[in-house]
């Protein structure tokens, strides 16, 4: 595993423990699991920015809606087939507003990974000359994978991949909590 990915995963565990809202406690860290890093799941995608950037409402696990901006399409090839994901921007200012938000489903959901889909955040500054690195090794579970009581976006239909992405975070093996810690 490269050092950057190793540091990212270690920082994720620290962030869980440092955030009072996080459903993960110190004893839960052992229940976070990841696929072995995969070079084939780290690729460069063609990025096509939408001319018109619509604000869309995405349903969440709690039944509420969250607003996002449909910013562009990521086109890439994996397993010999062409795939597309939509990149979104948060409508909120603050943490996460400098990242593309990419919620997705793939054929591992509900079997090897969390059934509600996984997410990726990719820094805007990595977009260069119409290319954006897309590294599924950084895919993570939303907090809803660990506990109910959170308001997690449900990946839209346009971000449902017809391929197994065996990279990033696997299904949580600890006890699913009722309600959030906040």
Short descriptors:
5-stranded antiparallel sheet, two-stranded antiparallel sheet, 30% strand, 1 helix, mainly beta, single chain, 182 residues
Low-confidence stretches: none
Order of helices and strands: HEEEEEEE
Beta-strand level of the residues, as a percent range?
Answer: 25-35%
- Percent helix, as a range, is under 10%
Using the alpha-carbon principal axes, give the shape: globular
Compute the number of strand runs.
7
Counting H and I runs of at least 4 residues, what is the number of helices?
A: 1
Major beta sheet summary: 5 strands, antiparallel
Give the structural class: mainly beta
Gyration radius (Cα, Å) is 16 Å
How many domains make up the 3D coordinates? 1
**Whole-Å distance between the termini?**
34 Å
Mean model confidence by pLDDT? 92
Structural account:
With 182 residues, this protein is mainly beta. The chain has one helix spanning 3-18, and strands at 42-49, 55-59, 65-78, 81-90, 99-104, 118-123, 131-135. It has one domain (3-159). The longest helix has 16 residues, at 3-18. The chain is globular, with a radius of gyration of 16 Å.
Secondary-structure map:
Elements: H1 3-18, E1 42-49, E2 55-59, E3 65-78, E4 81-90, E5 99-104, E6 118-123, E7 131-135
Antiparallel strand pairs: 1-3, 1-7, 2-3, 3-4, 5-6
Task: Provide a quick synopsis of the model.
This protein is mainly β.
């Amino acid at each position: 595993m490269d050092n950057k990915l190793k540091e990212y995963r270690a920082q994720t565990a620290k962030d869980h423990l440092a955030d009072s809202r996080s459903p993960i406690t110190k004893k839960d860290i052992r229940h976070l699991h990841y696929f072995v890093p995969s070079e084939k799941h780290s690729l460069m995608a063609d990025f096509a920015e939408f001319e018109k950037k619509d604000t869309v409402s995405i349903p969440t696990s709690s039944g509420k809606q969250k607003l996002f901006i449909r910013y562009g399409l990521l086109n890439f090839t994996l397993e010999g087939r062409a795939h597309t994901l939509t990149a979104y921007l948060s409508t909120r200012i603050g943490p996460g507003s400098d990242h593309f938000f990419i919620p997705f489903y793939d054929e591992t959901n509900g079997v090897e990974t969390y059934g509600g889909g996984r997410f990726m955040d990719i820094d805007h500054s990595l977009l260069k000359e119409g290319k954006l690195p897309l590294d599924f090794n950084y895919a993570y579970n939303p907090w809803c994978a660990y506990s109910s009581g959170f308001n997690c976006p449900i990946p839209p239909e346009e971000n449902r991949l017809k391929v197994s992405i065996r990279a990033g975070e696997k299904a949580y093996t600890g006890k699913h909590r009722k309600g959030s810690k906040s």
